[in-house]
Write a structure and sequence with these properties.
alpha+beta; RNA Polymerase Alpha Subunit, Chain A, domain 2; 4 domains; six-stranded mixed β-sheet; five-stranded mixed β-sheet; 24 strands; elongated
């Protein structure tokens, strides 16, 4: 007791001798503490941070209570300023655990990896529940999706996807429900020429569970053509094409055909029918006789011939 009373007496005497300095030191310490606390007490909340869940090979997540989390961070002004959702990793590791049935785990600061000195204050939700299933895989076709429409007068002719099928891996119970994998949509607005998408992302088959896709991207070749129409032009006279110096007479009097043409509606509408020429090729005929010859047709530029009726005519050479 004497030693304790002596020690207290010495402290009191020392404090009395340097009372002003001691009070000033205590005051400065308090001020510094509040200043430091203010400097590191900035907070921010970052929402929708992806949650990664690791499981053993051969297993897949059938259902999960959360795919993303919201986290409140605290730190200095600089720490908070440079936080970026893309740099934050949140992971639950179920590897090595019994995966039968339903698993629940708490989310804590140790599950979060962040650059800098910011600290995790709060995670919402605070725990995650998952239900597991054995993993399976299957091959499914890919369907290229589109939004928008080509300009007037143009149309989508065909789409070639490479590869045409992909392997999807996931919980067996869910794989039974998947018949096709869709791509992220391609915008056709304003497109008048064929094009190629070298890296087109594939979409997950469902929002409630995650599948592993192999490959994760495909190539799409999209063919765009001018929209066409067809029209029948009646009573086109048939002429004879003969070689120079041909003496026999070719009789085609009254022979007319119907010609079916294909092109853009505007071209067909403004077409000059006098530029449609039908003929039979008699350049190989040497002697007078009756011949059954095919009818050939030339059309104005930009217009195609898709049919002639009748396709052949009788030609009398005298």
């Amino acid at each position: 007791m004497k030693i304790i009373r002596h020690s207290i007496s010495l402290f009191q005497n020392a404090f009395k001798r340097n009372k002003t300095s001691k009070v000033a030191a205590i005051f400065l310490a308090v001020i510094s503490w509040y200043a430091i606390r203010a400097a590191i007490s900035f907070e921010t909340e970052i929402k929708d941070i992806p949650l990664t869940i690791e499981v053993d090979n051969g297993w897949a997540i059938l259902e999960r209570s959360a795919r993303t989390v919201d986290i409140t961070f605290r730190g200095s002004k600089e720490d908070i300023r440079y936080l970026n959702r893309d740099d934050i990793r949140v992971m639950l590791d179920f590897r090595g655990q019994s995966l039968n049935g339903i698993l629940t785990a708490k989310l804590e600061a140790k599950n979060v990896t962040i650059p800098g000195g910011a600290r995790v204050v709060y995670i919402r939700p605070g725990e995650v529940t998952v239900r597991m299933d054995q993993e399976g895989d299957k091959q499914v076709p890919v369907k290229v999706e589109f939004i928008g429409a080509t300009p007037e007068g143009y149309e989508l002719e065909k789409v070639v996807c490479t590869p045409a099928t992909v392997q999807i891996s996931g919980p067996r119970q869910r794989l039974r429900e998947v018949d096709v994998i869709h791509t992220s949509p391609i915008d056709l607005e304003g497109r008048i020429r064929s094009f190629r998408k070298l890296k087109l992302n594939l979409l997950q088959p469902s929002e409630s569970w995650a599948a592993r896709l192999e490959p994760a991207v495909v190539m799409a070749e999209v063919a765009i053509v001018e929209r066409s129409a067809t029209v029948d032009v009646e009573d086109i006279p048939v002429n004879a094409l003969v070689k120079q110096g041909f003496r026999p007479q070719v009789d085609l009097s009254g022979v007319r055909v119907k010609v079916t043409l294909k092109s853009r509606s505007e071209l067909l509408k403004n077409m000059d029918r006098d530029l449609i020429k039908a003929y039979v090729d008699c350049t190989g005929i040497e002697a007078a006789a009756k011949y059954d010859l095919p009818v050939r047709v030339t059309a104005p530029p930009g217009i195609g011939v898709v049919g002639v009726s009748p396709p052949t005519v009788n030609v009398m050479v005298r």
